Amino acid sequence: MSRFDDLADRLESIVADLDELAFDQLREAVADGATSRPSTDKELAKARRAAEKAAHILRALDGSSARG
Q1: Tens digit of each residue's pLDDT (9 = 90 or more) over 1-49
Q2: Residue 53 and residue 3: Cα distance in Å, rounded?
Q3: CA gap 37, 30 in Å, rounded
Q4: Domain range spanning residue 29?
Q5: What is the number of structural domains in the chain?
Q6: Confidence (pTM)
Q7: What is the pLDDT of residue 49?
Q8: How many CA atoms lie within 13 A of 28 on its CB side?
């Protein structure tokens, strides 16, 4: 496994952790009677997308380095 692939795997694990955190916060908000999303939801979604994008870029780099 290349270092690119290893980092992409780690980022994908972080994506899963961010999903879990976001869902936990949503559950807590519902349990507390909230009628809107937690204030952190938007920023967690942005962090998740950034980590997904980084993983995708690293996978592409891994593919191009294997050909080079």
Answers
A1: 799 999 999 999 999 999 999 999 999 999 999 999 999 999 999 999 9
A2: 17
A3: 9
A4: 3-67
A5: 1
A6: 0.85
A7: 98
A8: 10
